[in-house]
């Protein structure tokens, strides 16, 4: 059984050393005590911290078209309209994709979460993971659980919330009829064990800038060995570099001699590799010209999408660069996949959101 430290909702009004907490022993027994005493009970062991749902918000993205894991920035922009605060002021934890190809996200205030982690570190608590109580409910069915004086709704429901008894009464008529109810007043220890050992996939908030850092190795007893290995590595590296430099000069001289024999008219050599490639490309230039490749891209990829072309540039060695405007990041992702399906090496970059539109640069690389 994991070692859990639950920061109850009672302490949200004043986050301090007296925050009412709950610690579970290996046998599953509850112990309710303030934070500073709980830190002494844990004795520096790695713990999974559990936060009350009142401190967070749970959202889900729209179905994501690509199987590839999207970037956190893309998911954040995808739910921006559902948030009431600036993205810069929020910390977002991302969970695994569900069966509907949606990504669950747990949102909390960045500054508050940072202060909470600092409070735990100040008391010597080694935080291994940070989860939210309503997110522990297994996803196989809709659940309502009375826990620590409030009702947690989640599991198979499209929501994760904590409600008072009065609020639940007002909302109960809108809940599914097959929802399963559990009450801690009837079986406190059973519900604790069921929640803390559920088979769900709760979101760990230690992501991004708050990702758990590995502990550094103890310097005593290791520093001398590390210094010796570093010195040996430096000696071998120096010898290898000198050998490679010598071989490089010798091979370059040979290549330059062969180049002059193949192209006697090239008296001045500035960049041997670039000049050789340019001369070779002139000999066997492909029928599939750059203009033809651009035509394929516009007809088979861009023409089938609901995007606007702002500017088209061509750069030697880099290919075509097309500045686009789309309605969403999803449209850009679909555009990139359509290009790959048509055998065109396209990439997307410099994506940014302007008002209700998304701007990006589509690059058709040289084949």
Automatic annotation (TrEMBL):
InterPro entries, per database record: ATPase_NBD, GspL_cyto_dom, GspL_pp_dom, T2SS_protein-GspL
Keyword vocabulary terms for this entry: Cell inner membrane, Cell membrane, Membrane, Protein transport, Transmembrane, Transmembrane helix, Transport
The UniProt entry, under CDD domains, shows:
ASKHA_T2SSL_N (cd24017)
Q: Kindly give the Pfam families that the UniProt entry links to this protein.
A: GspL_C, T2SSL
Domain (GspL cytoplasmic actin-ATPase-like): give its ranges.
20-171
The record's subcellular locations are: Cell inner membrane
Q: Tell me yes or no: is Cell membrane among this UniProt entry's keywords.
A: yes
Q: How does it sit in the membrane?
A: Single-pass membrane protein
GspL periplasmic domain location is 214-366
Asked if the keyword Nucleotide-binding belongs to this entry, the reply reads no
Q: Which Gene3D superfamilies match?
A: 3.30.420.380, General secretion pathway protein M, EpsM
What protein family does this chain belong to?
A: Belongs to the GSP L family.
| Role, per record | Inner membrane component of the type II secretion system required for the energy-dependent secretion of extracellular factors such as proteases and toxins from the periplasm.
Q: What's the protein called, per UniProt? A: Type II secretion system protein L
Protein's gene: gspL
């Amino acid at each position: 059984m994991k070692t859990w430290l639950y920061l109850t909702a009672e302490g949200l009004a004043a986050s301090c050393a007296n925050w009412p907490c709950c610690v579970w022993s290996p046998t599953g027994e509850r112990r309710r005590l303030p934070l500073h005493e709980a830190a002494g009970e844990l004795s520096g062991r790695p713990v999974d911290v559990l936060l009350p749902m009142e401190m967070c918000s749970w959202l889900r993205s729209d179905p994501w078209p690509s199987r590839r894991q999207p970037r956190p920035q893309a998911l954040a922009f995808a739910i921006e309209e559902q948030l009431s605060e600036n993205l810069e002021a929020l910390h977002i934890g991302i969970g695994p994709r569900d069966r509907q190809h949606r990504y669950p996200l747990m949102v909390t205030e960045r500054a508050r979460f940072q202060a909470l982690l600092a409070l735990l570190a100040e008391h010597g608590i080694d935080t291994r993971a940070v989860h939210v109580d309503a997110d522990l409910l297994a996803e196989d069915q809709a659940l309502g659980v009375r826990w620590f004086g409030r009702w947690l709704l989640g599991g198979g429901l499209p929501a994760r919330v904590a409600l008072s008894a009065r609020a639940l009464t007002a909302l109960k008529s809108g809940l599914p009829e097959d929802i399963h109810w559990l009450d801690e007043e009837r079986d406190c220890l059973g519900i604790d064990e069921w929640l803390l050992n559920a088979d769900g996939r709760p979101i760990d908030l230690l992501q991004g800038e708050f990702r758990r850092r590995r502990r550094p190795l103890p310097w005593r007893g290791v520093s001398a060995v590390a210094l010796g290995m570093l010195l040996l590595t430096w000696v071998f590296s120096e010898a290898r570099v000198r050998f490679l430099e010598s071989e490089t000069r010798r091979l370059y001289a040979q290549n330059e001699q062969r180049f002059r024999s193949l192209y006697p008219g090239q008296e001045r050599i500035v960049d041997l590799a670039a000049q050789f490639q340019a001369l070779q490309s002139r000999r066997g230039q492909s029928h599939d010209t750059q203009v033809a490749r651009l035509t394929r891209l516009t007809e088979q990829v861009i023409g089938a999408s609901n995007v606007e072309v702002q500017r088209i540039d061509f750069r030697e060695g880099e290919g075509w660069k097309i500045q686009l405007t789309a309605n969403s990041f999803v449209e850009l992702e679909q555009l990139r996949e359509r290009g790959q399906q048509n055998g065109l090496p396209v990439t997307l970059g410099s994506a940014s959101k302007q008002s209700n539109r998304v701007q990006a640069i589509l690059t058709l690389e040289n084949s």
